[in-house]
Design a protein that fits this description.
The chain is an alpha+beta fold. The protein is about 20% helix and about 35% strand. It has helices at about 15-25, 110-120; strands spanning about 10-15, 30-35, 45-50, 65-75, 80-85, 90-95, 100, 105. The strands form two sheets. Strands 1, 2, 3, 4, 5 and 6 form a six-stranded antiparallel beta sheet that branches.
Length: about 130
């Protein structure tokens, strides 16, 4: 099994650091962004949706996105929100589409591989 699917690997980062990481891994048509999600899915806790443009060579919009829980942290100087990035906490929001022959199909494992690997690779660079 690929290391992209190892459940024991996760990160806790603040929202500002996450924005820097997503900007760092964005290039050309590979665009990443984090958007606020205040729908209250996990009760009163805040969530963030991380979107990836998922270019696949087809002329169709193709976004992959997952929702992650955020936790408040009362830092002595100002409050911050921490994002818990872990495979077991990822809630799929939108899956990508992939051609299989002439049919368009979804593939959760391919979505996760394309989504998680760049994030996991970049976070240790930023000290997570």
């Amino acid at each position: 099994m690929s290391d992209s699917f190892v459940l024991g690997v996760g990160f806790v980062v603040d929202l500002e650091e996450l924005a820097v990481v997503l900007d760092y891994i964005s290039h050309d048509e590979h665009r990443w962004e984090a958007v606020s999600d205040d729908i209250g899915h996990w009760g009163d806790d805040r969530c963030v949706i991380i979107r990836y443009s998922n270019p696949s060579g087809a002329d169709i919009p193709n976004e992959i996105s997952f929702r992650f829980r955020c936790l408040p942290y009362d830092y002595p100087f100002f409050p911050i929100w921490l994002v818990c990035l872990h495979p077991s906490l990822a809630e799929p929001v939108r899956g990508g589409l992939y051609f299989e022959g002439e049919e368009l199909k979804g593939d959760f494992l391919e979505d996760w591989r394309r989504f998680w690997h760049p994030i996991r690779k970049a976070l240790p660079v930023f000290g997570a």
